[in-house]
Automatic annotation (TrEMBL):
Entry keyword set: Membrane, Transmembrane, Transmembrane helix, Transport
Pfam hit, one: MFS_1
Domain Major facilitator superfamily (MFS) profile residue range list: 1-357
GO cellular component: plasma membrane
Organism: Psychrobacillus psychrotolerans
Membrane topology, record value: Multi-pass membrane protein
Transmembrane segments: 12-34, 46-64, 70-91, 103-123, 135-154, 178-202, 214-232, 244-262, 268-287, 299-323, 335-356
Superkingdom field: Bacteria
GO molecular function: transmembrane transporter activity
Chief place where the protein resides: membrane
InterPro entries from the UniProt entry: MFS, MFS_dom, MFS_trans_sf
Gene3D superfamilies for the chain: MFS general substrate transporter like domains
Protein name, per record: Predicted arabinose efflux permease, MFS family
Amino acid sequence: MADLIEAFPEYAPSTVMLIATIPGLFMIFPSLFYGKLSTKFTSRSLLFAGLIFFMIGGIMPFFLDNLFLIILFRGLLGLGVGITLPLSIDIITRFFEDRERDFLIGFGTSTIACVGAIFFQLGGGMLADNFGWQYGFLVYLFPIWILAITFLYLPEPAKKVAVHASLKETLFTAPKTVYGFTIGQVFFSMLVFGYVTNISILIQSEGLGSATEAGLAISLFTFGTLIIGMFFSRIRALMPIQNVPLAILLTGGGILGCYLSNGLTMIFVASFIGGIGLGLALPGVFARISELSNEKKGISFVGFIVAAQGLGGLLSPLFYQTILNITGFEGGRTTLLFASLGLTGLAIVWSIILIMSNSKSHAKDPHAPAL
């Protein structure tokens, strides 16, 4: 990100950061309509279309030097993510239950996804360092092999029976827990993006390293997510109620460690710790929401969370820029402080709401499941 800000000095940093956050806006649209898409198109067709959008939107900035065209194609990438992410959760939910489902959601949203993220961040940083910022976008050629496997080998799951749950029914008849988790996910994504967009600024502006080291820090963040994802189902079984708030608190602690660090080693360690928190929070939210979806009525609330992720990422630069304007501080290290404080506050509020909701639920029905 620091290289991109330097490449477009005529634009405000918050505008350049739209390259990272605009995919979040475009994620929202296919996510909200995913239930309808899944009844009209096969899973294989949706995956194929999502990967095509992802690759075209990712690669095209390599050929461009106009910031707004780059942002536009990044939006196309967001459309691809908005299709493939709820699709992956939906397929897991359709075929697996209980601990198996939790394991695969953790493995899918954390472990497998983060292998790609590590490759994109580290590979992109190395290409940008050695050849120029535009070459960093060439890493989006990577999904070509996934496309080939999809086309040649992926069996088509049984097509969903067409149901007629309207968008109005899906949006306005969801359990309160769905709305609560969705709002919480908006804030969580908004705060975490402060790390994603500012860790490279901290490392490069303070002379701690180059784009390669910045990419390595984010890769370690995602590596922490990768490792813990394999143990998600066990951890959730031990902490069925408070797993998400504790994960958010751990994420904030890792980002606070980055703020307090004076060298790369501590940044790398703190990034890894923050990633562990993220690797518990995301599948924790997805697992709870998938439990509340109603496949028989054709209602899936997973798209709500994907849309919330996108909206949070989109709002992040505006949120932090507003705080920086009010306080008079500059971005980079200070943004990480605000991110960690915000995540700590979010964890406390989320925990209190869960405790209160769970107490009310058990007062009405002692055998009610934990929220």
